[in-house]
Design brief:
single chain, Rossmann fold, seven-stranded mixed β-sheet, about 25% strand, globular
Length: about 270
């Protein structure tokens, strides 16, 4: 989809309005604890970023700032941005510690110029992160191009996304119990994968409006990064684990498949890391 086309601009504006409307529901869900952000995303991303005190980090599509504040706890100096003014307002309200180490900005991750302006005085970043938001964007090329310019040599960009192969509007979870079997078999039915498309759906039951999802198969997603001068040096596909037997047959803990994809990218020519 061409980001500069009128249709795309209209969709982007509508998407921003939806996220403003859903902001309070998402904020309440994140702050309640126990979400994937706390149990799956943050621990995996922290390991992949390997933040050291004093590093400068860019948090793109930061939402209510929950991970930005975690980065500041780890000693980073953080610039955090989101295209939803309401989410940025909530992020500022929640930031009562390390206030001198987090700067929040309203910025559109599909606008390369707005992203480049986040560097402020021109100092580049040691790391950048985008947690589970790329599928909410009508275009990803501006983000990858900007990150390639904003990172220091040796810097890294970690992003998480709904796994294009296993999680989306075109998949259905199945639980089947064959005759004489004691345990069900859990599988996923995939009806479409290669077609890039935009659909609407609900991520949390509390949100008042459906949000847009932009599905991209892996070759479109990753080639956009590679064509922007980034290379991949790590990939993670953690599964959801349950401490107790799951009472719901369709919880992700029953499936030997990853709901999220974690990718680490570096500017071409940068040294790789463990």
């Amino acid at each position: 989809m061409d980001h500069d086309s009128p249709a795309s601009s209209d969709l982007l504006a509508e998407s921003r309005d939806i996220w403003d409307a859903n902001a309070e529901a998402w904020d309440a869900r994140m702050n309640r604890g126990g979400s994937w952000q706390e149990t799956l995303i943050a621990p995996t991303v922290e390991k992949m970023l390997n933040i050291e005190p004093g590093q400068r980090v860019l948090d793109v599509a930061c939402g209510n700032g929950i991970f930005s504040r975690r980065l500041a706890d780890l000693g980073a100096s953080v610039v955090a941005a989101d295209f939803s003014p309401r989410l940025i307002e909530l992020a500022r309200q929640h930031t009562t510690e390390h206030t001198e180490h987090i700067r929040y900005q309203v910025a559109d991750a599909t606008d390369e110029a707005q992203l480049l302006a986040l560097a402020g005085d021109g100092e580049r970043f040691d790391a950048a992160v985008c947690n589970n938001a790329i599928m909410d964007m009508p275009a990803v090329e501006p983000l990858f191009r900007a990150v390639a310019q904003l990172l220091k040599p040796g810097g890294c960009f970690v992003f998480t996304v709904m796994h294009p192969c296993f999680n989306g509007q075109s998949i259905a979870k199945l639980a089947e119990l064959a005759d004489y079997d004691l345990e069900p078999t859990y599988s996923i039915k995939i009806s479409r994968y290669l077609s890039a498309e935009v659909t609407k759906g609900v991520a949390i039951s509390e949100q008042p409006q459906q949000q847009y999802y932009w599905h991209r198969p892996l070759h479109l997603l990753l080639n956009s990064a590679f064509e922007s001068g980034l290379v991949m040096d790590r990939l993670e596909e953690p599964v959801i684990k349950a401490d107790n037997p799951a009472s719901n047959a369709f919880t992700w803990a029953n499936y030997d498949m990853p709901p999220l994809l974690f990718v680490r990218l570096r500017p071409f020519g940068s040294p790789s890391a463990p």
